[in-house]
């Protein structure tokens, strides 16, 4: 029942289509019809601007964090730690799936990067902080959001295994699955990066 309950909650959290709702309610515009046609924070920055982009980014991170942290709050003293980690991982997978395939937006969502960041902050804050640092360094130097996301995602399982020496097979497996999912979601971006046609963003410019 705990798996089912928190899994359903996670999917519902993930299915909140922040970019779509803000675009339609504030600007009468569906971000999925403009820019990269993606319902995520990056496309919101491109299409709608900095303020709505920051709001979408923040909410998408928070919903990922809450999806995996709620089981910890309610179950930490009640069940075995290994079972708790499994519930958090199931919740993590479902919140990201909810973001990519949101039931409230005809199953057309974003790529799950911001939500994945929230997930890893909820499961492993130190690894998440390092991944965020890696993302920002790559983004600021190269001005490619996608490249930052790909390299940060690739770094996550390496940090879990070799830096923090985590022994949980569940956590190590999850870190590899999440990393692979984010990288696969950016496969078109990788082609554009190789072809030199990927759109740039400038974090430090107004």
Give a written overview of the molecule:
The mean pLDDT is 92. The chain has helices at 2-14, 18-27, 41-48, 50-75, 81-100, 113-123, 125-142, 145-163, 169-185, 187-195. By secondary structure, the chain is mainly alpha-helical. It is built from ten helices and no strands. The termini are far apart. The chain is globular, with a radius of gyration of 17 Å. It has one domain (2-195).
**Oligomerization status of the protein chains:** single chain
Radius of gyration: 17 Å
When the domains are counted, the total is 1
| Terminal CA distance | 49 Å
Order of helices and strands: HHHHHHHHHH
User: Which class best fits the helix and strand makeup?
Assistant: mainly alpha
DSSP helix fraction? over 70%
Mean pLDDT: 92
Question: What proportion strand?
Answer: under 5%
Give the overall silhouette: globular
Task: Report the total helices.
Answer: 10
Ranges where pLDDT stays below 50 over 5 or more residues in a row are none
Q: Sketch the major β-sheet.
A: none
Number of strands: 0
Describe the structure concisely.
The chain is mainly α and 206 residues long.
Keywords:
206 residues, mainly alpha, 10 helices, 0% strand
């Amino acid at each position: 029942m705990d798996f089912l309950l928190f899994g359903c909650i996670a999917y519902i959290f993930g299915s909140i289509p922040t970019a779509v709702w803000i675009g339609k309610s504030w600007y009468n515009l569906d971000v999925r019809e403009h820019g990269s046609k993606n319902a995520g924070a990056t496309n919101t920055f491109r299409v709608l601007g900095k303020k709505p982009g920051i709001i979408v980014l923040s909410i998408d991170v928070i919903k990922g964090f809450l999806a995996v942290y709620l089981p910890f709050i309610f179950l930490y003293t009640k069940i075995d730690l290994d079972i708790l980690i499994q519930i958090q991982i199931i919740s993590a997978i479902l919140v990201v799936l909810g973001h990519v395939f949101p039931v409230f937006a005809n199953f057309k969502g974003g790529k799950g990067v911001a939500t994945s960041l929230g997930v890893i902050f909820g499961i492993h804050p130190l690894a998440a902080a390092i991944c965020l640092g890696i993302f920002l360094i790559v983004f600021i130097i190269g001005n490619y959001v996608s490249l930052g996301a790909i390299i940060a995602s690739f770094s996550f399982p390496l940090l879990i295994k070799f830096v923090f020496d985590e022994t949980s097979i569940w956590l190590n497996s999850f870190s590899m699955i999440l990393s692979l999912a984010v990288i696969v979601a950016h496969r078109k971006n990788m082609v554009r990066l190789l072809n030199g046609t990927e759109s740039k963003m400038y974090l430090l410019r107004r």
